[in-house]
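We close this part of the discussion by returning to an individual protein. The sequence in question and its C-alpha cells are set out directly beneath this paragraph:
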Amino acid sequence: MKKVIAIIAIALASMSIARAQFGIVGGFTSSSTQINTQDWKANLENISLYHVGLTYKLDLGLGLAIQPSLTYEMKGAALKEDMTGSDIVEVSKTIETKTGYAEFGLDLQWGPDLVAFRPFIFASPFIGYMVTQEESSAVEAQVGGEGVTNFNPDEAKAWAEEAKNRLEYGFGIGAGVDIMKFVQLKAQWFMNLGNLYNEEGKTVDFKDAFMNSGYKNIENYNGIKVSLAILF
C-alpha cells in the first residue's frame, strides 16, 4: 500500500512539474487617460511604450490555468487643449506624463488544449508601485499676437511629481494563444482605477489656474497591451 501511495505521489508531482512553466515576457503598451471634468476639454493622445518581466504559468487542468507575472510597466498619456477667448486670443496648454511601475498581475485563464494550440480568454487583476516617472507641462497664451504667460514649468513638474499616486491597481481582460506550449501571444485591454494625481499630502505649492484645474481631474491610465512570452 505504501508503494502505491508513493507511486501516486510521484506521478502527481511529475504532472505538477510538467504543468508549471517559468518564462520571460515583453511587449507593447499603448495607454491614455481621461479628464473627469468639462472645465478642461483636452485632446487625448495615446503614448506607445513597453513592458518587460518574468511570468509563471500553472496549468490546473480542464482548460484552466493561472499565470502570475512580475513586470516593469511603462504607461503614459498626452493631453492638449487649444482654446480662444475674448481677452486672450489663444491659449494652448499641454500635459505629458509617463510612469514606470513594478507591477504584479495574475491572469485567470480558460481555454481548450488543442495539442499544438491552446486559445484562451482571461481576466487579470493587477497591483503596482511607481518606480520611475517623467512629467512635462506647458501653457502658451497670446494677446494681440504677443506671447504672455506667468506659467512656471519647473514648479508644475515638481507639483506633479509629488502629487502623482505611487500605488496603482486595476484589471485587464483579453485573449491569447499558446503555441506548442512554449510560445504565448496575448492581447488585453486594461484599466487603472482611481485618479493619477492626488493633491492630499503634497508640500509643493502650485497655483497656476490654467494647469491646476487640469491636473487634479486627470483619471488614471487605460489602454491596450500586446505581449509575447517564451515559456520554459
Q: What stands out?
A: DSSP finds three helices and nine strands in the chain.
